[in-house]
Amino acid sequence: VPFFFISGSDFVEMFVGVGAARVRDMFVKAKASAPCIIFIDEIDAVGRKRGAGLGGGHDEREQTLNQLLAEMDGFQPNKGIIMLAATNRPDVLDPALLRPGRFDRRITVPRPELKGREEIIRVHLRGKTISPDVDPAVLARQTPGFVGADLKNLCNEAALLAARENKSIVEMSDFEEAADRVIAGVRRKGIILSKEIRERIAYHESGHALLGRLLPKADPVHKISIIPRGDGSLGFTLQLPLEEKYIVSEEELNDKLITLFGGRAAEEVVFNDFTTGAYDDLKQATKLAKRMVVEYGMSKKLGPISLAREHMDVFLGEEIVKSNEHSEALSSLVDSEIRSLITESYTKAKEILSNNRSMLDRLASALLEKEIIAGKELQELFASLIPETVG
């Protein structure tokens, strides 16, 4: 079956009428080759909602879209032509493009689940000489949220790391380092940190890890590192769920929020001040607290309501500035609840770390010595640390 491939951006030109002419030419060739398949990649480049562009209803892109709509389901029948298209922005497409008779079947391609990641990893391990200790199932559990391209990059990066060290086989340690590169970036070997900064980073990451270990609903801690990475981070704590999560409880979100404050709380408990190192943690925590109050109805004062705003018209792919949908009193209450949730979580984080200070000290000391603690070694370390009180 003949297959015609074209990118959505190929239709749009600065000259008026070129895009519409290309649409007509494409369908003339398709009709002559029927039965056939036409695939348009990144269709949002030409199929955005009309009336949202700077040129009003007469710009080149809208003329191209009008011609495409007419060719797909106009007076001229298109027997034997199957239309396929792909986009990662279905929310910006014109409704007329999605009505029955045009693109009436929508298939969502989500991120692969645990089993899917395992199968993808097996595909990309073909042709590579790997050590018997490399288990695709374990790698799949360690890579939640990875898409196919990420997993391909992971396997190729592991093979490159093994080749650089003149290894004849790719070992599990190579995959561990490759995963760290994909998640947090390449090691920054040239950076030199003072003893005081390394100690502060160790306590920061130990704060995250200790809360992740002590809080019952927090995701298990998989790895702690104080090695600077290419994304600007000076260390990271990796927490991985035991299984795929499709819904999350309020208790799980509360524990996640407390864990996010672990780094800053540890700095304050140990050094009686804090640094800019918790910038990203604070950003994530604020975003999570806002969603808990505004979207998930997890506020005692507001009750089980969602105040999330619906998407409105699209302007060049961005939301138009929306009018205020809520009263000042309600907006003030929302802000108060978000602040209250953040304050309670931060106070709880400091309380737990203060009550388990000796455990925090021992964990930070081990991290300063080893720089990376993961897997079985990390679990043995946690088992040897007996908490004074969970708080």
Short description:
The protein is mainly alpha-helical and 391 residues long. 48% of the residues lie in helices and 8% in strands. It has helices at residues 18-33, 60-72, 114-125, 136-141, 148-164, 172-184, 195-214, 250-260, 262-271, 279-294, 328-355, 357-370, 375-384, and strands spanning 3-7, 36-41, 81-86, 221-225, 236-239, 314-315, 318-319, 372-374.
Task: Characterise the protein shown here.
The structure is a single chain. By secondary structure, the chain is mainly α. The protein has 13 helices and eight strands. The chain has a three-stranded parallel beta sheet, with helices on one face. A three-stranded antiparallel beta sheet has the order 5-4-8. The longest helix has 28 residues, at 328-355. Residues 312-323 have low confidence and may be disordered.
Round the mean pLDDT to the nearest integer and report it: 86
Order of helices and strands: EHEHEHHHHHEEHHHEEHHEH
**Beta-strand percent range:** 5-15%
| CATH-level-2 architecture of the largest domain | Up-down Bundle
What would CATH call the class of the largest domain? Answer: Mainly Alpha
Which spans have pLDDT < 50 for at least 5 consecutive residues? Answer: 312-323
- Separation of the first and last Cα atoms: 67 Å
Number of E-state strands: 8
CATH homologous superfamily assignment of the largest domain = Peptidase M41
Helix content class: 40-55%
Which short descriptors sum up this protein?
391 residues; Helicase, Ruva Protein, domain 3; three-stranded parallel sheet; globular; single chain; three-stranded antiparallel sheet; Methane Monooxygenase Hydroxylase, Chain G, domain 1; mainly alpha; Rossmann fold; 3 domains
